[in-house]
Amino acid sequence: MKILVLPGDGIGPEITEATVEVLHALDQQAGLGLELERRDIGLAALAASGSTLPDDVLARVPQVDGTILGPVSHYDYPPRAEGGINPSAELRTRFELYANVRPCRSVDGLTVLRTPMDLVIVRENTEGFYSDRSMHAGGGEFMPDPESAFSIRKITARASRRVARTAFELARTRRSHVTAVHKANVLKLSDGLFLDSVRAVAADYPDVELRELIVDAAAARLIRDPASFDVLVTTNMFGDILSDEASELCGSLGLGGAVNAGDDLCVAQAQHGSAPDIAGRGIANPVSLILSAGLLLDWHGARADRPELRQAWQHLDRVVTSVIAEPATRTRDLGGSLGTADFTEALIAALTKEP
Ligand code: ATP
Ligand code: MG
């Protein structure tokens, strides 16, 4: 399996290094045949080649079996004309990676929740409020005069249906219910179209139950009774916010793995951002990116019919859970004392000890 590795900005290089070490350990243990190809993006690439997403790196993405994208500090980039391209938004829209799949599972001892959380948020990834490329220059925002600013939110039936399909397919492999999260009581046209599209897809999945919930109620229910959710499907910004809430409720933003998936391509990406406040200090929790890489192995394993990749993911997921359940092997964001490198070493020791 050929994997393109793009370390990114902020804590990106540190957590990417940890992820690469873990992948090497899994490969040595199970003979997965992983071929990793590391390339610069972000501010490192801007300095070297004048673009935060060089053309030759972009061209590699559809040629490999999967990509690991580190977090990027896109808010520090120069304008597009000066080489500043948000790699995350560019990859999602250009390659139609329409589903951002974010599993969240609570770990005993790390969560304050009253009922266990084991859910997956499937977030629409190509439109909504964050549709950089689908609008005119400047993305979906404009200021007609210095005193007023507008944001345009684009919702289409096509994008809503395809993300809904991802959610229903996933629910079939889990507890068979999907909750569509929306605000159609106020945003009657846009969220109304999203909801109608999800309902239309639900008709093809009589074995999966569709529930509907308004986004503010969903934010509350995530705290009160997370066990009542299986798969959630929602529009771009709601999904962004709810998944941070969900992973923090599980213990830390640094825990949630995620992939951006389309029909043919998949990009692993941590749920959190580049965390500039702790960058370069060797204290970031690498779990989110490590689990994201594991989800990528699983995604490719399913498509290429390579069960050993799927087993490697199961093994990784199990061992990560047991390592973070142990207070002595936690990073600081989880109340522990380990830095990135020591945590990674402990994780690899546990991975290679257990079959
Ligand atoms: P973005 O706009 O890219 O989503 P953000 O503003 O949401 O970025 P994050 O980079 O996700 O911000 O960071 C939010 C907070 O969580 C910061 O205080 C950061 O230090 C912390 N954090 C994020 N990721 C990690 C991690 N892997 N380990 C430890 N702390 C983290
Ligand atoms: Mg964020």
UniProtKB/TrEMBL annotation:
Protein name per its UniProtKB record: 3-isopropylmalate dehydrogenase
UniProt keywords, alphabetically: Oxidoreductase
Organism: Pedococcus dokdonensis
A GO molecular-function annotation: NAD binding
Taxonomic placement: Bacteria, Bacillati, Actinomycetota, Actinomycetes, Micrococcales
Pfam families in the record: Iso_dh (PF00180)
Any GO BP annotation: isocitrate metabolic process
Domain (Isopropylmalate dehydrogenase-like): residue spans on this chain: 2-347
Family: Belongs to the isocitrate and isopropylmalate dehydrogenases family.
